[in-house]
């Protein structure tokens, strides 16, 4: 009888060890796959954001040039406004605020006379670029936050 109890105890210990080992392995696989999926989603989101932000910067630069050449044409802001709408859907508040700052600046610039805009560029060329610099800084901060996973 003692021999049978010893055999049953050994079998139960082996079975418990196997179950514990399998469940530990399954949990490790689950968490590894979950981490890989999240990393893949972050990289995908990051790629989409970079594409959107690049298009916004290019369009804002083009709109700024148009404002110098043909002021009083706020219709040039339509494409840029659509990009701000996409940024509103996909981005953090600081990036959206910076994008709206670019839009506000360009609206003001479109309403100025061309000579005044040219004078501004001559006197303070960095001032023309300040809203875009703020936008790219907000984008960079968001990118770093996304890469940290927060």
Furnish the topology, listing elements before pairings.
Layout: H1 2-69, H2 78-90, H3 93-111, H4 114-123, H5 125-148
Helix pairs in contact: 1-2, 1-3, 1-5, 2-3, 3-5, 4-5
General description of the model:
- This protein has 150 residues and is mostly helical.
- It has a domain at 45-148.
- It contains 5 helices and no strands.
- The longest helix is centred in the first third of the chain and has 68 residues, at 2-69.
Features:
150 residues, mainly alpha, 89% helix, rod-shaped
As a whole number of angstroms, the C-alpha radius of gyration is 29 Å
> How many extended strands?
0
Helical fraction equals over 70%
The stretches of 5 or more residues where confidence is low (pLDDT under 50) are none
Helix tally equals 5
The biggest sheet amounts to: none
Structural class: mainly alpha
- Strand portion: under 5%
Q: Which of globular, elongated, flat, extended, rod-shaped describes the shape?
A: rod-shaped
Distance between the termini: 60 Å
The pLDDT mean sits at 84
Order of helices and strands: HHHHH
């Amino acid at each position: 009888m003692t021999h049978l109890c010893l055999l049953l105890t050994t079998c139960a210990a082996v079975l418990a060890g196997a179950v514990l080992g399998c469940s530990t392995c399954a949990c490790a696989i689950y968490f590894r796959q979950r981490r890989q999926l999240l990393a893949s989603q972050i990289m995908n989101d990051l790629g989409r954001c970079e594409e959107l932000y690049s298009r916004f910067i290019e369009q804002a630069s083009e709109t700024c040039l148009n404002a110098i050449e043909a002021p009083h044409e706020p219709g040039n802001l339509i494409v840029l406004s659509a990009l701000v709408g996409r940024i509103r859907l996909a981005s953090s508040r600081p990036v959206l605020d910076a994008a709206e700052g670019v839009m506000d600046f360009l609206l003001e610039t479109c309403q100025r006379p061309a000579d005044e805009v040219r004078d501004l560029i001559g006197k303070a060329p960095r001032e023309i670029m300040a809203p875009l610099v703020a936008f790219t800084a907000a984008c960079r901060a968001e990118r770093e936050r996304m890469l940290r996973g927060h």
